């Protein structure tokens, strides 16, 4: 099966390309390189020994997307390409709504026109807002999102659900990610943000490497064991494997209007300070960090209940937070020595 991976040069996308290849799929990568770079493609090639087709295309460009679908015959699409910084989305909401929603609709129209039956959407646990109870299940009510980024994921899910139920010929799964961290154990690919990182772990590794003076922990007065936010941190390789499982589940469906959602998390919550302490312990590095005020858009605490993804997709988180933080640090050391 030939699978289009949008945003395939990005953090999660690149690891998913590797896992797709390992599972016998043929990935084709498109990416506009807005928050990634071509060097990632070389890392993928070193891991897999293969040179996958790559197209520098923006998913909002209807004409170029159609031309690609005319050229390549796809059996499925995994849609990662989106802006994803919570804080930036609060400052620039229109950019997020325009980019994240139009690209989704362009791809769904192409999937219908060119009869691509399987669609996996990169969603987020942000659709739950601040839940009343944790852990969250797939039946936990979605709340108004805490950020425009989170709202684009909720609206994206609704668009897909309605499109599938309109007998579009597309079957779809939305994967609600929790907090992906880590890197490939080879240290050949990992998280590579352009500019100031919006995610916690690359900010930690850059601070540990001396590239940034200090790390700011946003808020210490939350209702948690140490006052910092609680998150469900999942190794990016485990998350990548969930996309393979999702494609396999879609391919097995005989209903043409199949749509479902799955939480993809470890089922365990850790505070930000617990993550920092674990990073220091497993890597033998002391971090310079300060406590700052709360950040607008942040949820206090959330982690997954993983029963559904375990039982239905037969997917399980295999790697620990310590594994992920060791891999992330090895990746940082590698790219720091290359700079």
TrEMBL record:
One Gene Ontology cellular component: cytosol
Tree of life domain: Bacteria
Keyword set, alphabetical order: Carbohydrate metabolism, Galactose metabolism, Isomerase, NAD
Gene Ontology molecular function: any one: UDP-glucose 4-epimerase activity
Entry-linked Gene3D superfamilies: NAD(P)-binding Rossmann-like Domain, UDP-galactose 4-epimerase, domain 1
Enzyme class: isomerase
Annotated ranges, domain NAD-dependent epimerase/dehydratase: 3-265
EC number: 5.1.3.2
Essential cofactor(s): NAD(+)
GO biological process, one term: galactose metabolic process
UniProt pathway annotation: Carbohydrate metabolism; galactose metabolism
Family listed: Belongs to the NAD(P)-dependent epimerase/dehydratase family.
Assembly notes: Homodimer.
NCBIfam families: galE
Protein name: UDP-glucose 4-epimerase
Organism per entry: Dyadobacter luticola
